[in-house]
Amino acid sequence: MSTTLINNVPKTAVNSNDHLTGNPFLLNCWYVGAWSNEVHDDKILARQLLSKRVVFFRDEAGKVSALEDRCSHRFAPLSTGRHTGNGVRCMYHGLVFNGKGNCVEEPGVKGVSRGTDIQAYPTAEKDAFIWIWMGDPDLADESLIPDCSYQSQPGKWDWEPRYRYFNADYRLIADNLLDFSHLTFVHENTLGGSKKIANIKPKTEIYDKGVRITRWYLNEDKVAPYLRGFETFEGAVDRWNIYDLETKGNIFNMDSGSAPAGSGAQEGTFVPEAMLFHATQIITPETEQSSHFFWSYAHNFNLGDPKFTTMLTDRIAEGFEEDKEMIEAQQIIVNENQDKRFAYIHFDRGLSAGRKTLAKALAEEAEYFASKSAAE
Amino acid sequence: MSTTLINNVPKTAVNSNDHLTGNPFLLNCWYVGAWSNEVHDDKILARQLLSKRVVFFRDEAGKVSALEDRCSHRFAPLSTGRHTGNGVRCMYHGLVFNGKGNCVEEPGVKGVSRGTDIQAYPTAEKDAFIWIWMGDPDLADESLIPDCSYQSQPGKWDWEPRYRYFNADYRLIADNLLDFSHLTFVHENTLGGSKKIANIKPKTEIYDKGVRITRWYLNEDKVAPYLRGFETFEGAVDRWNIYDLETKGNIFNMDSGSAPAGSGAQEGTFVPEAMLFHATQIITPETEQSSHFFWSYAHNFNLGDPKFTTMLTDRIAEGFEEDKEMIEAQQIIVNENQDKRFAYIHFDRGLSAGRKTLAKALAEEAEYFASKSAAE
Amino acid sequence: MSTTLINNVPKTAVNSNDHLTGNPFLLNCWYVGAWSNEVHDDKILARQLLSKRVVFFRDEAGKVSALEDRCSHRFAPLSTGRHTGNGVRCMYHGLVFNGKGNCVEEPGVKGVSRGTDIQAYPTAEKDAFIWIWMGDPDLADESLIPDCSYQSQPGKWDWEPRYRYFNADYRLIADNLLDFSHLTFVHENTLGGSKKIANIKPKTEIYDKGVRITRWYLNEDKVAPYLRGFETFEGAVDRWNIYDLETKGNIFNMDSGSAPAGSGAQEGTFVPEAMLFHATQIITPETEQSSHFFWSYAHNFNLGDPKFTTMLTDRIAEGFEEDKEMIEAQQIIVNENQDKRFAYIHFDRGLSAGRKTLAKALAEEAEYFASKSAAE
To answer: Does C69 touch chain B if contact means CB atoms closer than 8 Å?
Structure first.
């Protein structure tokens, strides 16, 4: 993440009915559409993203394409179609579309009828993700793809891909990830910690691209519940979480770890037995009320032991189940109380900062589209 | 019920689309929110009442409180929270609310942030019910709580608490309870009776607080089907139902019974073998299209035999199942025919009287809120 | 079907959002409401037709009536009522309605209250169908009932009645039936055929009452997949489909067959071993988004063998399951893309002709109701 610090964390309440305003999604950015391994061989993956239905498939060279999931002819979904060479055949009347959305075959005739092309979305594949750009395609610069390179360092970090579906607005999930104070309550027996931890106030910084939240809890008695039994050392623990949200695309990268107390982690020295983690957590809106959650939890120890990686990841997943249950319950109450505002409490600096960077990005994007539309 | 007789039963049709008009619920009255035994120990009972979600819980002294089911902070439902001493802790970020709705604890800080209090509703506990007042709290006078004292006379009346959920507007259920003519058809094999009974016209009286409906059927061959096998005497039967609706709160108290024919019941003399009943039936709206139904069926014979009470109550419950099936089917047709009016037939005096008292009470309440609002 | 040829097949796209315009159903025509054998003895058949709930029942002489499924009194559905002599008794309060919709009995009173009659719809029974007229009853002329007489020629044609429910607009189903080009793709392994067949362009003719589509495929290697094992002759095959859509009522009559290649079928000569079929396929809208599909598949060979008829019909039914799956998937995408138009391709002449005749009939009917309303 860029290191331009713009520290101006809002101390006012965030309105719960933000999401009633016009445009709830950022469009001009790369979103994760799928894990790379979800699209293979002749599989056509159907997924709704930003309220639009999309199909993903690979051409014969393995390159991924994304098309709208709608045949131009009679609107049959292409996801019920068939992979064919470099394209997809609609299995209602047989039209074939290539990865650019061009209709390239119409049965029973040479050439194709006019107006049969459909929309294609720019895609890219990097760090085990398939990325998709659903905004102005002129801006789809691959150099803007967020860094998730922890997933591309075999031998240094082990991890496995996970996916979870939330019946909730992506902003409620982002709020949750930016907020450490819920760990003690929601994750009492999983990711959480002591009452003492509940009282530690994290440091919150706003950068040009997003938000960083840092929390150190030194000299704890034990590692977090999810790590019990996996300890690589004995005695007191220094723990930390450093969370970077990149606002565009809802990209959360978290460095965290547990090291022997006083071994120098806070000053940047990691002794060999320090347990280091890097979590990649990405939310892609499905609709205004539902979200895709792609995540991994890379670790630097017990490398080359997939069973360990699965067991560790399963423990983290338990915590996300707890979040999912809470956030989906919250969504119902939010929906029924559109006329009321969230109360702001002292622990809200992190999530308020996230909301603020989002509001700024949405405003800039609205301005971009307005001026583009005026120029046309 | 007050004995001021205001006899003016409407003979005109009641419009089925009454419930499209502004305010379908009376607010300034005591409603039954729960049976007392539904809220015990550390249980937090969640229930939607008059379209608002409420939680009930007891403090350490056993006093019941009712709060809106919404944490002020990020709108997590308190019903997923945890009972703590005299309050409830939201298990998202740990805020604690007392029975008055005050936020009394915010983790990690002394005192609490501003604007964190939530709404509390006046409650009271009487005659095995938890009562709740959801209108203007200044008017929540406990002396207005309807009399359900048959449930507080052990040794004289035996009964057990029952609850049933209806996917129907409370007014359709009240219509049903005020109408004896459906017994022959809906309850042919349960609560019903002969064709002769179907033709008996009940007496309907309007009082200041509600409606009384009285029906005597003298010298019947048998008791009602649900009493067969339980007879305390042989031979012909005088039967009666005297139904009091207290409009505010939808409180139905019914005295009914079966006595040996000619033994003087109609004149007020009850021989020892007379089978007397007192039914308490209360409808509390959940939403405009769904209702809670709390009921008991007290009897004055076979006392101290809980199995008998359960068996008798089960038989009555069969009849309510028949009502539920009919009323929920009716609700669907009512919803699809908002432009049409119910036809008025000669047996409608009871239910029309009920609708009339309700319309009057709703109008008075609208006037109260309008003048209060003007005064502010 | 009338033989007045009006050949003017549109070559422009049909707008997918046709069905957002005012009146999606033709009213002044006979629709199939049920198979005759669905209404028998004391059965009351409830079915929603053109967004209205209807009950069918027979009087003591066997004559079928159709009433709205709504008691005039408190809107209980008559479908939960009881057949009684020549009428239906509402089992809420006991009102009885005859086949003309007149309330003929009100319990406990001589005569009946005013305003208790309900709506009856003209019905007729012909060719194993119960027909219903839901438009202006003055126009309900039984001579307008479409011809389905293949179902009334025992000894010449064998068939059995089938019903299927579609979660789709009737127009999407009609599109499908008028389109042969989907057979190769949707029905690859059932009703379909070779790639060669996919490329044959059918002849489309518009008549005053509807559309005729004709397709001959001469000298095919084999019969269609669904006929394999049933062949009555060996060697090459001439196959044909001649499809008549009668727009009013969505009546599809299809003559089809397979004859030895060169045996003269195209010229009207059918050798004894020719396999002839007559399909009756009728769509009656349930709502704007759901439809009833009544169909039979008469055959002229293996007569008197009900097991064969069932086996053959089951094979066709497999094909309709494939259509149902595709059309219901299409409906979802159509609903989500009301702002977009179907692209027109060269194979769309048939379905575009069907849409055109429907648009014309709807416009004429709108004019009829407008002038009638002006005259009143």
So the answer is: yes
> Which whole-number Å values give the CA distances from C70 to B16, B290, C79, C116, in the listed order?
13, 21, 8, 11
Contacts of B80 in chain A (CB under 8 A): 325-326, 329
Whether pLDDT at A302 is above 80:
yes
> Which chains pack against B, by 3+ Cβ pairs within 8 A?
A, C
Integer Cα distance of A111 and A109 in angstroms: 6
Name the one residue in this structure whose structure tokens are 């094999």: B189
Residue of C53, C74, C112 lying closest to B342 (CB–CB): C74
d(CA A199, CA A190): 18
Lowest mean pLDDT among B192-201, B267-276, C149-158, C243-252: B192-201
Position A25 confidence tier, pLDDT thresholds 50, 70, 90: very high
Residue type, B214: T
Please judge whether B333 and C77 are an interchain contact, meaning their C-beta atoms are less than 8 angstroms apart.
yes
Give the class (CATH, top level) of B154-365. alpha beta
The residue extents of the domains of chain A are 40-121, 154-365
Closest residue, chain A, to C182 (C-alpha): A93
Q: How sure is the predictor about C187, in pLDDT bands with cuts at 50, 70 and 90?
A: confident
**Is A75–C182 a contact, with Cβ atoms under 8 angstroms apart?**
no
Chain A, residues 15-54, CB within 8 A of chain C, namely: 53
Q: How far is A169 from chain C (nearest CA, A)?
A: 20
**Token digits of residue B299:** 């009897």
pLDDT band at A376 (very low <50, low <70, confident <90, very high): confident
Q: What is the pLDDT of residues C277-286, one digit of tens each?
A: 999 999 999 9
Architecture of the domain made up of B38-134: 3-layer Sandwich (2.102)
B149-173 burial, b at 16+ Cβ within 10 Å, e below that, comes to ebbeeeeebbbebbeeebebbbbbb
CATH superfamily of C42-124: Rieske [2Fe-2S] iron-sulphur domain (2.102.10.10)
From the list C179, C342, C345, which residue is nearest A75 (CB)? C342
* CATH class of this structure's domain A40-121: mainly beta
Q: Note whether B275 and B240 are within 8 A (CB).
A: no
Closest CA to C200 of C261, C253, C246, C241: C241
**Domain C153-365 architecture:** Alpha-Beta Complex (3.90)
Note the ipTM here: 0.90
Subunit partners of chain C (3 or more CB pairs within 8 A): A, B
Q: Using one digit for the tens of pLDDT, what is the confidence trace for B163-173?
A: 999 999 999 99
Yes or no, beta carbons of B184 and C92 under 8 Å apart: no
Q: Is the pLDDT of residue B222 over 90?
A: no
How high is the pLDDT of residue B194? 66
CB count within 10 Å of CB A195 equals 10
Q: Does the structure show a pLDDT above 50 at B21?
A: no
Mutate to test the interface with C, among B18, B322, B345 (most CBs of C within 10 A): B345
B286 in contact with chain A, both atoms CB, cutoff 8 A: no
Question: Tell me, what's the pLDDT at A21?
Answer: 42
Interface contacts (A, B; CB < 8 Å) = 81
Which range has the worst mean pLDDT, A25-29, A214-218, B58-62? A214-218
Tell me which chains share at least 3 CB pairs under 8 Å with chain A. B, C
Query: Cβ of B184 under 8 Å from any chain C Cβ?
Result: yes
- Other CB atoms closer than 10 Å to residue B147's CB: what's the count? 14
How much is the pTM? 0.91
Is the model's pLDDT at B4 over the cut of 90?
Answer: no
pLDDT digits (tens, 9 = 90+) for B303-338: 999 999 999 999 999 999 999 999 999 999 999 998
Query: Distance from A355 to chain C by nearest Cα, in Å?
Result: 30
* Interface contact flag, B108 A346, Cβ < 8 Å: yes
How far is B190 from B323, CA to CA, in rounded Å?
A: 11
Three-state DSSP class for B310?
A: helix
- Cα-to-chain-centroid distance, residue A32: 7
